[in-house]
Amino acid sequence: MNIIYTKDYEKKYKELKKHHKEKELLEKIIIFLNKSESFSTVLKDPVSKIYCLERLKHNLNEFYSFRLSKIFRLIKVGG
Predict the structure, then answer these.
(1) What angle do CA 36, 79, 76 make, to 5 degrees?
(2) Under the phi-then-psi rule, with left for phi > 0, alpha for psi from -120 to 50, and beta for the rest, what region is 52?
(3) How far is CA 51 from CA 7, 11, 59, in A?
């Protein structure tokens, strides 16, 4: 699966330097996504539940997020 990063990604990634646990989890999630064949396989994989994959609500229901902590989330476009 191909991951496309937003313009703000580098800035946000640098902010995670102070948050070692969240940065480590983000790197694990990126490895998991890179190993997946498609987004539909990510949705079916039980590992997604470990990383707290959840669909957003209302007008953002085409997006999913991985919760890195109570503060940080990684947003992924579905489909």
Answers:
(1) 75
(2) left
(3) 24, 22, 23
- Looking at residue 79, its pLDDT comes to 53
User: Which DSSP state fits 74?
Assistant: E
Q: Which residues pair with 74 in a beta bridge?
A: 66
Residue 73: its pLDDT value, please? 74
Measuring CA to CA, which residue among 25, 29, 31, 39 is closest to residue 71?
A: 25
Cβ atoms within 10 Å, residue 76: 18
3-state helix, strand, coil in the chain (%, to 5): 50, 15, 35
4 vs 64, more confident: 64
